[in-house]
User: What shape does this take?
Amino acid sequence: MTAKAAAERFTGFAKDAPRFFHELAAEMSRDWFAAHKAEYEALWVRPMEALLGEVAARLKPAYRGIPLAEPKLFRIYRDVRFSADKTPYKTHVAGHISTAAGAKPTEGATALYLHLGLDEYSGAGHYIFDSEQLTRWRKAVVADKTGKEIAKLCAAATEAGMGLDAHEVLARAPRGVDADHPRAELLRHKGLVVGFPAIPKGLIHKPGFADWLVEQATAAAPIVKWLARNVA
Assistant: This one.
C-alpha cells in the first residue's frame, strides 16, 4: 500500500463498481482485463486500500500491545497451477489486516479479512492452522484457564450474530479427546474464523462502511488476540 493511498480517506465504492466484476465474469480473458485494468484499480483497488488503511488505524486501540501489519491486498490473478478451473481472474477484490508484520494469511491471526465483488465476506481469525499451530490450539483449548476463556469469547461472538468456521472442521473430536469434553466442538476446528454478519445492502457505497467494519472487527478482537497469544 502506497503512502498516498494510506492517506486517502474512504468515501465509498462507486455505485456502478459491481458492474466491473459482472463484465469480468462474462469476458474472463486476459485481453479484456488488460484493457480494463485501470478501471479495476480506480473502482476497487484504490478505494479498498483507503478503506483498509482507515480501518487499520482505527483498530489500533483494540489491539494495544499487539502490533498490526500494514494492510495488504491480494492479487486478482488466480493460481491455476493445481486447479481444474483455469479461469484466470477472481471475481472479487480482497485484502486483510494481519497481527504479524509480513505474515501470510495462513501464518498469523487476522484482525480483518474482507472481499467484495460478486460475493461479499468479512471476518477475522485464523483460517487454517499449520501442524504446530494446531498442536498449540488443542493444548490451549483443553487447558482449563485458556480453554474456558476462548469458549466464553466464542459464545459471546455467536450471541452477537457472528459465525464460527474454519478451513476444516472434523466430523468428530480428534483422536485422544473425549467426545464428551466440554469444548469438544472447538477441538474439532483446525482453524478459527469469526464471520461477521452480512454486510448491510448498499453500505459499501458509503463512508459509513468503514465504521461498520471497525465495529465488527473490534467485537472480534478478543478472539483474534487470544489466537495471537496462544496459537499464532
Observations:
- The chain has one domain: 14-230.
- Strands lie at 72-73, 92-98, 110-117, 121-126, 163-165, 192-195.
- The longest strand covers residues 110-117.
